[in-house]
Amino acid sequence: MRSASKNTLLKVVILGDGGVGKSCLMNRFVSNQFDEHSFHTIGVEFLNKDIEIDGETYTLQIWDTAGQERFKSLRTPFYRGSDICILTYAIDDKTSFNNLEMWRTEFSYYADVKENNQIPFIVVGNKSDVIAEEREVSQLEMETWCNENGITSCIETSAKNASNVQEAFKMAVQHWLRLESRADKNETDINDTVDLTKKSGDNRMSCCVGSSDD
Amino acid sequence: MVEVKEEEEKKQVAEAAAEIAPKEDEGENENESLPTISESEAENEVSSSSDSDGEPERDKALLIGVAFNIDELYTEILYIILHNVGCDVSLEVGQNSLFSYAQEAFRIPNNKHRQLMDIAESKQDPELMINVEVIEAKELKSKDSNGLSDPFVTLYLASNSSHKYNTSVKSMTLNPIWEEHFALPITGNSTGDTLCLEVWDFDPAESMKEKFVTATSGQHENELIGRASIPLNTIPASGMTMWYSLDKKHKATRQGVLKVRVSFSSGKNNQVAQQEHRHMRKIILLHELEMSKVAPHWWCGNFSSQGEQLLTQHIAQSGLWPTEVALCSYSVYADVHQKHPLSLTLFTKLLEKLVKPLKTEDISEEELKLFWEATRKLLPSCFSVIRKIRKKSTTEKTIMKQVIEVMKILNYITLLEPNGIDLFPSTLYPWITSREDGPNCDILSTLKEAVCRGASDWLEYLIEANSRQNETDLVKLQNLIQLIHLVRTDLQKSIEYYDKLFLDHLKFQYAKCLYVFYQARIATLCEPEVTEICKTLKKLHYVGYSFNSAPVNEDPTDDPLLEGTSLFEVYLTLQRFVMLGKGLCPAEYNSFHIKNFHKWFHGGVTQWLDIAVYKALIRIEKAVELDKLVHVDTSVKYSSSAVDALTIFYQVKTFWQQLNWPDVEGSYTFIAKIIDDICRCCVFYADKMAAKVDGLGEVEDIYDKKFEITNEWCLAINNIDYVRETLEPFTRELNMEEVLKQIGETKGPLDADRCKNTLENVISNAIDTVRNKIIELLEIVVNKMGPSMKRLLIEGAELCNQDSNSVDRLMMYVDNNLSTLHRELNSENFNRILQILWDQLSEILNDIIQNNLEKRRPPSFFANLHTTLNIMLGSFKNPDDCSSCDALQRTEQILKINGLETADLIHQAYLELANLFEKSGETKYGELSFRCKFQNDSLIIEIMNARDLLVMDSNGTTDSFVRIHLLPEHKFIGVEKPKTKTQNKTLFPLFDETFTIKLSTEQCEMEGGLILFSVKDRDMLGYNNQYIGEAFLRFSDIPRTDQDLSSLPQVKKWLNRPVTMDTNVIKALESRQGDKQAREFLKKYKQRMGS
Ligand SMILES: Nc1nc2c(ncn2[C@@H]2O[C@H](COP(=O)(O)OP(=O)(O)OP(=O)(O)O)[C@@H](O)[C@H]2O)c(=O)[nH]1
Ligand SMILES: [Mg+2]
After folding, report:
1. From atom 3 of ligand 1, which residue's Cα is the shortest distance away?
2. Which of B162, B314, B427, B598 is the most buried if burial means most Cβ atoms within 10 Å?
3. What family name appears in the similarity comment (chain B) (predicted)?
């Protein structure tokens, strides 16, 4: 049971190819557990968890979706109304990285958000614990892709050794906060589009955190 | 040519179908097309299948297949008329009328007629025979002594009585059965002749041979039982079977009865006669059809009396057997039927007669060939009935009748086992798709094809008729719905009317066969359209999901909504269709492609779920708008919108039940989605409810503006709570358990557990979210009360003593509001709001205290505030609960402290230290030993020693002394503060000094009285004594006794120093900067702390 409080509720959706470790990420974040033999998710899984940032508590309602293609129509209904979208790939799986574009499009379509850059996407490259020989996507590639797609937050994580998992979710919320405050400002600021792109470019490097053991 | 016919048929079917198909712009055509169909059909049937090569159609029709020369045949007819046999000839129809009938039927000009008549008249008389079957006799008179007879029958023609015929003898019976046949040649004119029948009793004395001889030689040794005579002119040409009375001369009584069948025959060649008969029958039939203009499908075997007469005469004069006649008729009718459809009943009747002989009797190869030839001609019309079963120009009853006949015909044919006969040549049956080499005689598979073909023609027409170019998706969907609906209706009809017929007659599963066809066709039709539409569904835009925002004012008749709804209708229609299949074809069901129809709709489900939520949100908004905020009835504490909200949720549930999604993985996921959606609807409802009551309760009176809790506010809270309470039971109704069970079965218990956890998380998340929403509302309410409470509290503090009115008002205010809350809210929410109220109150108090401390308000202000607060708390209904609120208690404590006069406050500081030190263990400052007692009005203190004192001097020792203070200071003014001598250079000083302090009785019994021992290090000069530490002893701990001090136990106390300024008391003192007493205390306090 959640605490009786008026925490800000944030709906978080985790997307990415089947097997990149979405469910593991969520379980690591929520219950600090890791299951080596995790099953493919059926449709969706749901957990919630409070997270504190700058003294404020946020309740994250996390929807972990099934990445396998056959579940497409089962997961898409959950996109609408999300506050944060975590695009996930595995650094030892290039295909999963290449599919990020597909995931982003799918999300944007079904979430029914008017402008792309209003969606708080963050990109997470999971399985950063794998040995260097197995790595297929470099951190630079990730950053470049994010930069090209106007995504300002990205991070490499490992659900296995817990590295950067808390940080990833924290980053997602902070990212949301930035967008919120910007959105508030935008209500008076008509000429915002130029501003936004400029800002996102400037902020990019500061928000990208690489995995520590790289 | 066959192709043309196919086209024609299609057109008819199509026209028929147009009637039930949805109409677009064919309103007027309908009336025209209806009556014309039957007419044009007749024409089609005749003209399209006959070879038109210029000859006048009638003559040509006559000639077809007639190997005979018409003239010869006509001559034969005339000859038959001339030699009419039987009784019925001249009575019924005159000879002349027969001649003119024949002339007309054969279209013979007069001169030719006369010419042929001459030939007929000149021909010699026909060789006629009378056939007699002696069948049986009954009730014969007995002639023997044993009461029985041994009868036999003798028969002869009167004109030739010497030529007698005898039956065998049946011994010892009065009811003999013979069943024996005789043919008696007729000589000369038959009309005057008589057939004589005599029944005799055989004389057993004679030998068989003798009997025969005597019988024939006319001697009368045998005894005559009776006789009957039949004039030949009483016998109809078609023959007859009759019982005749047996008479005997001079005997009035009947001698018994004899059953005989008599008919005429000729010595003609049977083959020739049959052929002749067929031609004659055909010509006559065609003539009659033309004359009577009987409608197609109507003629069922009734000729005019002339026609009948001619045919009967021919049968009689040619000696044709009934089976032969039936076969001739069958062959002729089948042939004519091809061009002019006759009633199918005609054929079933003939087949009924033919089946047995064909199976049992010795039928010639040629006759058999004739039969199958005819059957081949007959069958296309049968299958045509099946194919046109949906034709609307004919009534249901007519079609039913026809189908029954077809069933009978096909059943007879099946009984005859047409093995090896090519019944269904591809020229006649181009629509048979599965063909193997060799003759095709598979009736059931042809029937199946006919059934499918009929359904197909009909369906394709419907599709064609409904398709327009550039249809919108919406129209496409509606067409699909309509189409499936029509198909379902057709199936239902087939079940209702035809299925049993097919099953009973042919063991053919008609409806099932149809279903198998339809399901495949509908699947190929729907799948691409549905998947395509699902892919390109227009999005439903609305912001309903984000909190605090209403659906944007979108037109609910907007396309995406309609489109989604229509798509859902298609889904439901298909669902029903598939259910029908499950019942009809339980065995095949699993192999049906359409079984998985739901997969085509995958994309649509998202849209439907969205629509369900969208509609729910709109309805909720409306329900809140319409809510008059009064109790639904006296027994409940919520208003209409809460009930409406539930109804709205149940509509979502109904949607879910209708969807009845067959796939468990999907079901599970959609349940999670629905629960989450419902939660969002709840939140939306809560927000709308809050917004509705938001402005309520602000009242203004002569004193001020304030917020009064209203019933409406309470209703709003209750409503949301009511909805929240129903959330969990609601989710249980979504069939979760079953779905989880199935996941367990198909995917294993681990997956089922994970799904279960997720669902439970989603549910509790939903419940928590709504609960927090309620708390949010309660907080809003309390916040609204805040300003009034604050103002009243301050007023109370300022004016407490002068004007108690404000306290009364405060009490009234709180009391009023709380009683409203108590009355309207359930206890859970009431307790919640109290809790929030306490928190809020202590926040307000803290604020006031802080503010007023800054303003240096006198302690009396805080004391008043404290009193006011206590009054207020007293008015709360649940004083127990207030103790549970830590914040309020702490605040109250602060208030109490700040309300104290400085001297009391200082003493409070000492008391707190005393309490604190009480708990302390060993310290670095050392330990003091002493003994104390009260005796009379004196306090006697013996300072004994100290140990382990803190090193204070540079030489590693300490020069210590102890001073005794009595506290509270202001109560002991003028009382001495004795001190010991200084014990130099020791950490273990022995003081061993006793002091007696004289006190008043009140002082001795001073509540909270304390002894403070302060131990100091004496400075060389005595100016700057250093503080080592202190210890306290409560007056209440000092014994009152006359006992010697030395007999009392030593008291040992570790020395301590104050350690913190951060206590409420010290802070309160610090806030009294202007107070000298406080200032000095603090100064000393800091010294005691050491630096
Ligand atoms: N080495 C390594 N393996 C991981 C990590 N995270 C997950 N895995 C493994 O990757 C596999 C798949 O993880 P899941 O979390 O089930 O993948 P998923 O993204 O949820 O997959 P779907 O539910 O099918 O969409 C599991 O065998 C995990 O043990 C990680 O950080 N490092
Ligand atoms: Mg998963």
Report:
1. A127
2. B314
3. Belongs to the unc-13 family.
Question: Encoding tokens for residue B349?
Answer: 């009747």
Q: Do A72 and B602 touch (CB under 8 A)?
A: yes
Q: Please report, for residues A53, A87, A133, B142, the alpha-carbon distance to residue A143 in angstroms, rounded to integers and kept in the order given.
A: 25, 13, 20, 129
CA of B374 to the centre of ligand 2 (A): 73
Q: What is the pLDDT of residues B162-200, one digit of tens each?
A: 888 888 888 888 899 988 888 888 876 666 788 999 998
Question: Which residue in A2, A48, A77 is closest to B606 by CB distance?
Answer: A77
Is A22 touching ligand 1 by the criterion CB < 6 Å? yes
Superfamily of domain B128-266: C2 domain (2.60.40.150)
DSSP class of residue B430? T
Q: Which of A2, A73, A80 sits opposite B605 (nearest CB)?
A: A73
Q: Are strands A56-65 and A44-53 parallel, antiparallel or unpaired?
A: antiparallel
Domain boundaries, chain B: 1-125+270-312, 128-266, 329-447, 467-606, 608-773, 775-902, 905-1089
- Transcribe A16-46 into DSSP letters: ESTTSSHHHHHHHHHH----TTPPPP-SEEE
Q: Write the burial class of residue B201 (CB in 10 Å: 0-12 exposed, 13-18 middle, 19+ buried).
A: buried
A46: chain B residues, CB-CB within 8 Å: 672, 676, 758, 761-762, 765
Nearest to B310 by CA among B559, B538, B569, B83: B83
Cα–Cα distances in angstroms (integers) from residue B145 to residues B148, B175, B227, B254, in the given order: 7, 17, 22, 20
Position B291, amino acid: M
Measure CB to CB from residue A47 to each of B680, B761, B768 and give the nearest one.
Answer: B761
Is the CB of A75 inside a 6 Å radius of any atom of ligand 1?
A: no
CA of A40 to the centre of ligand 1 (A): 8
Contact between chains at A75 and B776 (C-beta distance less than 8 A): no
User: Is residue A167 in contact with ligand 1, taking CB distance under 6 Å?
Assistant: no
Establish whether residue A18 lines the binding site of ligand 1, counting it when its CB lies within 6 angstroms of any ligand atom.
yes
Least confident of B409-418, B844-853, B875-884: B875-884
Which atom belonging to ligand 1 lies closest to the Cα atom of A39? 16
Q: What is the largest CA-CA distance in chain A?
A: 51
Pick the residue whose CA is nearest to atom 26 on ligand 1.
A38
User: Which atom, in ligand 1's list, is nearest to the CA of A24?
Assistant: 15
C-beta of A38 in contact with ligand 1 (< 6 A): yes
Q: Chain A within 8 Å of B780 (Cβ-Cβ)?
A: no
Dmax (CA) for chain B in angstroms is: 197
Query: What pLDDT is attached to residue B441?
Result: 81
CATH code at B608-773: 1.10.357
pLDDT tens digit string along B900-955? Answer: 888 888 998 999 889 888 888 889 999 999 999 998 888 999 999 999 999 888 88
CATH level 3 topology of B905-1089: Immunoglobulin-like (2.60.40)
Q: What is the pLDDT of residues B1-53, one digit of tens each?
A: 444 444 554 444 444 444 443 433 333 333 333 332 333 333 333 333 333 33
Q: Is residue A204 part of a domain?
A: no
| A45 CA closest ligand 1 atom index | 23
